[in-house]
Design goal:
Blueprint (H helix, E strand, L loop, with lengths): L19 E5 L4 H12 L3 E6 L2 H15 L3 E5 L5 H15 L4 E4 L14 H29 L4 E5 L3 H4 L5 H20 L6 E7 L5 H7 L4 H4 L14 H12 L10 E4 L3 H6 L13 H13 L4
Helix pairs in contact: 1-2, 1-9, 3-4, 4-6
Bound molecules: hexanoyl-coenzyme A and NADP nicotinamide-adenine-dinucleotide phosphate.
NADP nicotinamide-adenine-dinucleotide phosphate (NAP) binds next to helix 1, helix 4 and helix 7.
């Protein structure tokens, strides 16, 4: 489920060589794609999640590709001391950390009434609690050390629309969006920026196994919901993330950038269903409408 097109990096080589970046959930899927891009652009990257063996393999793979060291750190983001430990290890290995990417997530589809309160908790704890723990830990460190750090939060487009069948995730992503916008204002005075990316469908093993298991992947092929009629390429998201953590986006603060091929707007527009009307019917429809225009008022 990796990038198919051979897209190039948007930023020049070395654009992130002054950055020390922690990516939670950086050993798989979109986190790994971002970690690879950051490392490619010269950043010192830490990837942090629960499964240390998988992280070690991913770190070695990224390093072999980019020639830069990548540090794997075991970290459960639901545990504040793990987050403090990740920061400590990153600083010891690479020096001051200046970027934190909240990418770790948990999610699965289910009618909400089937969920136990623990099922709800497990998602909220990873996405929202893990996100604000990380942000709080990074913010305290940056303010104390006068570092103009940047947080990048990976949310989703249903952070503002909501979504049925993934309610704990929707609630958590909405919280992360509110956190992004709130702290962008509150911590602006310290030179700390917070932004978010809202991806549409980008196939990853982790997401597809839990959101479109079995036949659902064919039945509800996400590309049919997207005006551009395709899913996203990992490199497209990684390029956007690299820009948002770089100094080139130094005046972008509190923003959420949607990268979904127009998907959520297609779902939103009142008359977007009219794309199902075949071209040859439009003459007849126009005639009917014109006739109505000429009819007498009721
Ligand atoms: C109902 C479920 C369930 C399901 C688990 N539970 N799966 N309930 N339907 N399908 C319940 C369990 O019974 C339990 O409640 C509670 O949830 C916690 O379960 P655990 O055993 O602790 O966890 P486990 O089921 O092993 O794992 C859940 C998880 C796991 C931790 C969230 O899936 C995970 O590690 N996910 C990380 C990767 C991931 O989710 N990636 C997708 C991100 S995609 P009880 O009451 O029985 O104890 C994304 C956005 C995509 O975020 C948007 C796409 C467009
Ligand atoms: P993924 O590969 O399953 O990534 C989730 C990552 O989170 C894994 O690396 C996992 O690693 C880590 N993680 C889970 N629980 C954790 C915990 N308690 N502590 C630390 N790390 C934890 O899925 P993905 O598709 O790449 O998703 C990445 C991000 O993009 C998520 O925020 C997701 O919501 C967002 N997103 C994805 C899509 C999409 O289409 N793929 C769309 C919209 C938004 P471990 O198992 O090792 O802990």
């Amino acid at each position: 489920m990796e990038t198919k097109k051979n897209l190039k990096s948007m930023l020049r080589e070395g654009s992130l060589d002054k950055k020390v970046i922690i990516v939670t959930g950086g050993g798989t899927g979109l986190g790994k794609a971002m970690a690879t891009e950051f490392s490619e652009l010269g950043a010192k990257v830490v990837i942090a999640s629960r499964k240390f063996d998988a992280l070690k393999t991913a770190a070695a793979e990224i390093s072999a590709r980019t020639g830069n060291t990548v540090l794997p750190v075991q970290c459960d983001v639901t545990n504040y001391s793990d987050i403090e430990n990740t920061l400590k290890k990153a600083v010891a290995e690479f020096g001051p950390v200046n970027v934190w990417v909240n990418n770790a997530a948990g999610n699965f589809i289910s009618p909400t009434e089937r969920l136990s309160y623990r099922a709800f908790d497990v998602i909220v704890n990873i996405v929202l609690r893990g996100g604000y723990y990380s942000t709080l830990c990074a913010g305290k460190y940056w303010i104390e050390n006068k570092i103009k750090g940047t947080v990048l939060n990976i949310v989703t487009t249903y952070a503002w629309t909501g979504s049925a069948y993934v309610v704990p995730s929707a609630v958590s992503k909405a919280g992360m969006l509110a956190l992004t916008r709130s702290l962008a204002v509150e911590w602006g005075k310290y030179g700390i920026r917070l932004n978010a990316i809202a991806p549409g469908p980008f196939p990853t093993k982790g997401a597809w196994e839990r959101l479109l298991p079995g036949d659902l992947a064919k039945k509800f092929d996400f590309k049919n919901k997207v005006p551009l009629q395709r899913v996203g390429e990992h490199k497209e998201l990684a390029n956007l993330a690299a820009y948002l953590v770089s100094d080139y986006s130094g005046y972008v603060n509190g923003e959420v950038v949607t990268i979904d091929g127009g998907e959520w707007l297609k779902g939103a527009g009142q008359f977007n269903m009219l794309e199902l009307v075949p071209n040859e019917l439009w003459d007849e429809i126009e005639n009917m409408v014109r006739k109505a225009n000429k009819s007498k008022p009721l």
